[in-house]
Amino acid sequence: MITAIWILKGLIAALFTFVGANKMLIPKSKLLDKGMKGLINLDGKQIKIAGVLEVLGAIGLILPSVLNCYPILSAVSALCLGLTMIVAGVVNYKLKLSIIPNVVIFAVCVFIAYWEIK
């Protein structure tokens, strides 16, 4: 089971790092062209801040467990990343976009947090 948790943590961390880096480095117009329609009501600074927070969350998901230092921080990071999926799901629902990816990522984040706390 520990191997499965590490695989899930790696996948979620890679996902949030990739998406967060895109938000930090790519202009809003190109992000919208790439299909990130949920960002339409945000300005450029808000998108950059969201990107930074997603990358920091991904780091917080992995680093405490790797260093074996305050492992509860991995659970907190997983819950915070799950919270971002709730917000993203609400935005996508209001824009009539699919919320299935948000629900799946949220469920994985909550599972990781539960396993880390347990």
Notes on the structure:
By secondary structure, the protein is mostly helical. It contains five helices and no strands. Helix 1 (2-25) packs antiparallel against helix 3 (44-67) and helix 1 (2-25) packs across helix 5. The longest helix is centred in the N-terminal third of the chain and has 24 residues, at 2-25.
Rg calc: 14 Å
Mean pLDDT: 96
Weakly predicted, low-confidence segments: none
Number of helices: 5
Described by strand count, sense and barrel closure, the largest sheet is: none
Q: How would you classify the helix and strand content by structural class?
A: mainly alpha
Helix content range: over 70%
| Total strand segments | 0
C-alpha geometry: globular
Distance between the termini: 13 Å
What amount of the residues lies in strands? under 5%
Secondary-structure element string: HHHHH
